[in-house]
Amino acid sequence: MKQVNIIIADESHLKYAQEICDVISDSAKVRGTGIARRTPEYIQAKMINHNAIIALSGDQFAGFCYIEVWGDTQYVAHSGLIVHPEYRNQGLAKKIKEFTFNYSLKKYPSSKVFGITTGLAVMKINSDLGYRPVTFSELTDDPKFWAGCKTCTNYDILTSKEHKMCLCTGMLYDPVKKVKKKEKWFNKKVLKRLKHIKQTMLAGNKQLLLWKK
Ligand SMILES: CC(C)(COP(=O)(O)OP(=O)(O)OC[C@H]1O[C@@H](n2cnc3c(N)ncnc32)[C@H](O)[C@@H]1OP(=O)(O)O)[C@@H](O)C(=O)NCCC(=O)NCCS
User: Fold this and answer.
1) Which of 10, 25, 41, 172 is the most exposed place for a label (fewest CB within 10 A)?
2) How many angstroms separate the alpha carbon of residue 117 from the centre of ligand 1?
3) The pTM is what?
């Protein structure tokens, strides 16, 4: 793997915002799953506030993740994790997430850290960091967070389930109730099966919703 540096993004990285959005959007199309889209302006605001992490190989964009603060710092979310296709399967997402996690614990020491994802890779990484799967009721109830899902193709499922569930799995790290790292719950086979069941049930409902409209 080429040498990659992971750093806290700032104003000098604003020029990468468009490319980051393009890679996120192209990857969502390839995966065929929902993803909350973000504008380059949103990504740039995160960089200016030092709430974004960027991975660069020389001046080439390799990966990205940003931090969002919810409920007056009661929660922080690590979102928009993306690795450029040329740098995948080499452990870069894991390093970016670990960097973001440690940085965010220093910046927001009392905040619970959460994420929602359909990605097995992200579930694996989060599990290794000590997150545990939770129901959406344990996550922030800040409407602005959930409004961010509006650009996801599965938003009608989320609203039809009154924000109680969706295709994404909610995951939480509570700094007070630190999970012992050995308590591993991640089981790729089981999670793959669960994801399939969820997709069949909830996406089946989606067909019904569309049919009813
Ligand atoms: C998901 C993504 C960030 C992973 O990046 P990456 O740098 O290739 O991931 P890593 O190499 O760090 O892999 C981390 C772990 O996940 C596993 N993994 C990677 N891709 C996987 C996949 N598609 N399915 C299941 N597990 C996967 C790896 O085996 C590794 O596990 P290990 O620690 O046991 O070896 C990257 O593929 C990507 O940007 N995808 C498009 C955007 C996306 O899906 N973002 C997540 C939003 S929910």
Assistant:
1) 41
2) 12
3) 0.87
